[in-house]
Amino acid sequence: MHAKRFALALAVALLLAAWPAGRADAASSPFASYGIDELGVVIGLSPAYSPVGLIGGDLPPAADGKPDTLRNPEDVFVDERDRIYIADRGKDRVVQFDGDGRFVRYIGHEPGKGKLKAPEGVFVDRSGSVYVADTGNSRVAKYSPDGAFVREYTAPKEGHMPPDYRFVPSKLAVDGRDLLYIVSKGSYQGMMQLGQNNEFLSFYGKNKVKLTPVERLQRLFYTKEQREKLSDALPGSITNVTLNGQGFLYTTTMSIDTEQIKKLNYAGQNILPAKSFVVPGAGGGGGPKDGDYLFRDVAVDGRGMIAAVDAKTNAIVQLDAQGKLLYTFQSEDDRRQRVGKLKSPSGLALTSGGDLIVTDNTTHLVHRLRPTPFAKLVLEAASLYAEGKYEQSEEPWRQVLRSNESYGRAHLGLAKAYAKRGEWKAAMAEYKLALDGKGYSDAFWQVRMLWLQERFGWIVGGLVALAAAYRLVRRLRPGVVRSAAAFGVVPGTAASGPTAVDELGAPHGPAPAARLPAFAAAAAREAIRFGAVLKRPYAVFEELRDGRKGSWTFGLCVLLAALVSKLAAERWTGFVFHPVPANLIDPVRSGAVLLVPLLSWVVCNYLVSTLYRGEGTFKDVFVGSMHALAPYVAVTLPLTLLSNGLTASEGVVYHFAQQAALAWTVALLFVKVQTIHNYDVKETVVNVLLTLLTMAVLWFAIFVHITLSFDLNDFGSKLIEELIYRG
């Protein structure tokens, strides 16, 4: 056993010696960096950090003369003079290094009252006093700036303490008033706030209880006896805490789904605008993950930029002062252990120069990572942007785009700079590249207002001319109608004689030679009937059922028109309401979104109706369903054109028209089922519900079939490979 430990210590020492503190090599960076655009698409970025080296390779030899190394380094703190303190849990001590990563001394390693046991947290106040979360001894130990033991803080004996509270400090911070904020393992009450005399003051920064929908229903409908048997819903326990230069406390919590990172004010309330966070998957393969991470520690620089370590993906996540993602960076999974590759990051701290110090309690290493020029530009620009200095941030953003032209935050920064100067058209272009629909809408409103102001006289003149033309047409309309009747366009004229007209106003009967050709007249009657369904749906569907006047050709034409309307809406809807780049629009997928449910409805409704006293044929069901699309076809294209002239504040018009057309279409489908199959209301409701259930079963069966087919093909290919290999 001793030989194995010696071999492990020697190997780590050799690795540390190979990478002395202060050595920089950007080309050897094992990290890949990622960002996320406004659509949630993962984008690759230039490397954000490069490994500088490892800290801890120059420790003095152990008492037995063997090389000494860190073991399970759990936490790290960097003071105002860039001195580094490591809570070395496995060796029961705190190790201090200077700003260059050279060994200075041990703290808490000597026998006596100050002897540490499995420390997991360390903090240094402005006077240089060192506070250690002495986890194994269930206390907080305080040492003077020269390392001498001063006193201990134990579980308070007085105050309103819960009787079952376990005081097991794991992390801590000390504010400018010398108040201690202690994270205790498993404590759901929040951080314990202690005074310098070990007096209990309060619990601080407690997380909120989040109930699932099922738990809410249980507490709503269960009896008192049943509710007593339910386990109590407890808030998540705080994992870590840090203090920034302005005196704000930041906490991380690994066991909750929202507000995993908090910025607390003096009242213990979270004032960080971002409430949920996203971590992109490596290489974009996993996609962005919302709530799928474990923030273990957090560090904040003087500008408020937040760096957090995710223990689940082993990624370093860089956020701005508002909690919005700037980039992440992590090691590629090449199964090689090398400097800068994190396996189980446990602690994180920032130097004044922006270097990241990261402890890894599995590999027993402490990594030093240095920001690349790309990361420095992003942080500088994001800091200026957060302060509202949009024009000053313009040049850094431009330099960022030279490295990554797809970085959306840079385009957003440029858009704000253009808007600040009143260059609204340029701002619109940058907002579009940033996929920011709201910003684009604000800039477009300004452009539209200026356009209207410049052309106000022409617009008023045009409106007056249109009004005059309308009055003239009304006065000349009788003569125009008589002229049109001479060519048989208008039924019931002196030139063509009386013409029979159906109840919908569509002409029918023999067509004189002067009138339209037969196929054109039939198409005109179909079109008139299609339009009439908006006003008299029952009459139209009854005629389709009794007169069998609907045609397959016209139904297919309506289906094609609906498909064209759908694709046109996807492609040409105004950016304010559809902020998706044209290159990301998939016409096949967009068409399938319309055709698959619609054709499934036709097939399943016919199948259900044949078993449920339906009178309509398959043709009736198909043609009737196509006629029910009249509101969708009539509204979609005009609404698409109108959307390009509206801003977000006028979106109520767009969304109302869109939802009204959808509701109208659904209502017509209901009327179609009732009329085509000659049902009453109750039978119609049953038919519709059965149709929807049949559609669900059909889609599930198709999904299972496709899945099994892929599995069968995979099995067959592997079987053939095995036979070839063994043959």
UniProtKB/TrEMBL annotation:
<keyword id="KW-0732">Signal</keyword>
<dbReference type="Pfam" id="PF01436">
    <property type="entry name" value="NHL"/>
</dbReference>
<dbReference type="InterPro" id="IPR001258">
    <property type="entry name" value="NHL_repeat"/>
</dbReference>
<feature type="transmembrane region" description="Helical">
    <location>
        <begin position="551"/>
        <end position="569"/>
    </location>
</feature>
<dbReference type="Pfam" id="PF04893">
    <property type="entry name" value="Yip1"/>
</dbReference>
<dbReference type="GO" id="GO:0016020">
    <property type="term" value="C:membrane"/>
</dbReference>
<feature type="transmembrane region" description="Helical">
    <location>
        <begin position="589"/>
        <end position="609"/>
    </location>
</feature>
<protein>
    <submittedName>
        <fullName>Uncharacterized protein</fullName>
    </submittedName>
</protein>
<dbReference type="InterPro" id="IPR011990">
    <property type="entry name" value="TPR-like_helical_dom_sf"/>
</dbReference>
<keyword id="KW-0472">Membrane</keyword>
<keyword id="KW-0812">Transmembrane</keyword>
<feature type="transmembrane region" description="Helical">
    <location>
        <begin position="653"/>
        <end position="673"/>
    </location>
</feature>
<feature type="transmembrane region" description="Helical">
    <location>
        <begin position="456"/>
        <end position="473"/>
    </location>
</feature>
<feature type="transmembrane region" description="Helical">
    <location>
        <begin position="621"/>
        <end position="641"/>
    </location>
</feature>
<dbReference type="InterPro" id="IPR011042">
    <property type="entry name" value="6-blade_b-propeller_TolB-like"/>
</dbReference>
<dbReference type="Pfam" id="PF08450">
    <property type="entry name" value="SGL"/>
</dbReference>
<dbReference type="InterPro" id="IPR050952">
    <property type="entry name" value="TRIM-NHL_E3_ligases"/>
</dbReference>
<feature type="domain" description="Yip1">
    <location>
        <begin position="532"/>
        <end position="702"/>
    </location>
</feature>
<feature type="domain" description="SMP-30/Gluconolactonase/LRE-like region">
    <location>
        <begin position="81"/>
        <end position="157"/>
    </location>
</feature>
<feature type="repeat" description="NHL">
    <location>
        <begin position="109"/>
        <end position="146"/>
    </location>
</feature>
<keyword id="KW-0677">Repeat</keyword>
<dbReference type="InterPro" id="IPR006977">
    <property type="entry name" value="Yip1_dom"/>
</dbReference>
<dbReference type="InterPro" id="IPR013658">
    <property type="entry name" value="SGL"/>
</dbReference>
<keyword id="KW-1133">Transmembrane helix</keyword>
<feature type="transmembrane region" description="Helical">
    <location>
        <begin position="685"/>
        <end position="708"/>
    </location>
</feature>
<feature type="signal peptide">
    <location>
        <begin position="1"/>
        <end position="23"/>
    </location>
</feature>
